[in-house]
């Protein structure tokens, strides 16, 4: 069982409007340069920077690219001093730990360098600041979120191909003095966590990388319990043991986590984000000087 699918990383990358690679392509282009630099030299006539810029403006994605640049700069103007290098590194480390040895290759598959991904994480943190400044969260909102909330838990799992095999291993795991970690190393087909007894990184109700059937079963367990039957997932059949479940408690005990979950959901809500961006643009007094791109922010 993989903890995070590649689609999850893409989701992380796509949270804000910021797109480093595309945005960088427009940097320095424009008619304001006293010298029209050459972008491409060739037989007949060269391609100048102004020609390149003019052609870019005709592309259907030009306004989207401009939106991304405006959002990125506006976020830096308003919240840049509130997000430090250590804040970015802290988030980066959590993803690095979750992906483990596969992290570098997954970044490469998504066409991101370490530096570029850190920049994207920074933009995500800046956007969170903008959302937090624009969204008022009440106790009523917290109580509503608490209904679906589950605290971070850690489990160990054994994955096998068939249900019959899973039932046999489950029976062994339920025996007195059974060593679950040893059974995981002996039987599990999930090679990613054999060396740590089948343990998975902690997860809560916001996790979308694990099968829903898996998390639903896991959240019913108390510390030390093993789920009553094998759970069918896309990876096969899984035996689940709860390593640590702190218990849900009361909503007042989890205000910080609940607020974070609400804000994360808001970042995926188009209506909320439209309001957030409209406020951001107004605060930055945006005026688009190029007539060809003047309606790039129409709708905000």
TrEMBL record:
Membrane topology label: Lipid-anchor
Major enzyme class: isomerase
Gene Ontology CC entries for this record: plasma membrane
InterPro entries, A to Z: Foldase_PrsA, PPIase_dom_sf, PPIase_PpiC, PrsA_foldase, Trigger_fact/SurA_dom_sf
Molecular function in Gene Ontology: peptidyl-prolyl cis-trans isomerase activity
Compartments in which it is found: Cell membrane
Catalyzed reaction equations: [protein]-peptidylproline (omega=180) = [protein]-peptidylproline (omega=0)
EC numbers for this chain: 5.2.1.8
Residues covered by the PpiC domain: 150-244
One GO BP annotation of this record: protein folding
UniProt keyword list: Cell membrane, Isomerase, Lipoprotein, Membrane, Palmitate, Rotamase, Signal
SUPFAM superfamilies, sorted: FKBP-like (SSF54534), Triger factor/SurA peptide-binding domain-like (SSF109998)
Domain of life: Bacteria
Function: Plays a major role in protein secretion by helping the post-translocational extracellular folding of several secreted proteins.
Protein name (database record): Foldase protein PrsA
Source organism of this protein record: Pediococcus ethanolidurans
């Amino acid at each position: 069982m993989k903890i995070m699918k590649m689609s999850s990383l893409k989701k992380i990358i796509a949270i804000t409007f910021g797109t480093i690679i595309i945005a960088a392509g427009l940097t320095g282009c424009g008619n304001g340069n006293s010298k029209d630099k050459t972008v491409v030299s060739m037989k007949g006539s060269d391609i100048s920077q102004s020609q390149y810029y003019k052609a870019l403006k005709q592309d259907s994605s030009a306004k989207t690219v401009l939106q991304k640049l405006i959002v990125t700069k506006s976020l830096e103007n308003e919240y840049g001093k509130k997000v430090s290098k250590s804040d970015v590194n802290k988030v980066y480390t959590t993803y690095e730990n979750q992906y483990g040895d596969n992290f570098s290759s997954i970044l490469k598959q998504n066409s991101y360098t370490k530096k570029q991904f850190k920049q994207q994480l920074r933009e995500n943190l800046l956007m969170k600041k903008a959302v937090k400044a624009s969204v008022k969260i009440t106790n009523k909102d917290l109580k509503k979120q608490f209904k679906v909330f589950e605290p971070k838990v850690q489990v160990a799992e054994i994955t096998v191909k068939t249900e019959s095999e899973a039932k046999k291993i489950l029976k062994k795991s339920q025996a007195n003095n059974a060593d679950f970690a040893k059974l995981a190393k002996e039987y599990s087909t999930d090679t990613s966590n054999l060396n740590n007894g089948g343990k998975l990184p902690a997860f809560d109700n916001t996790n979308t990388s694990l099968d829903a059937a898996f998390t639903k079963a896991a959240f019913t367990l108390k510390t030390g319990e093993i789920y009553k039957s094998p759970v069918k997932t896309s990876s096969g059949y899984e035996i689940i043991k709860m390593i640590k479940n702190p218990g849900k408690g009361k909503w007042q005990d989890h205000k910080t986590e609940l607020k974070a979950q609400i804000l994360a959901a808001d970042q995926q809500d188009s209506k909320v984000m439209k309001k957030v961006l409209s406020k951001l643009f107004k605060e930055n007094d945006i005026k688009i000087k190029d007539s060809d791109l003047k309606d790039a922010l129409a709708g905000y």
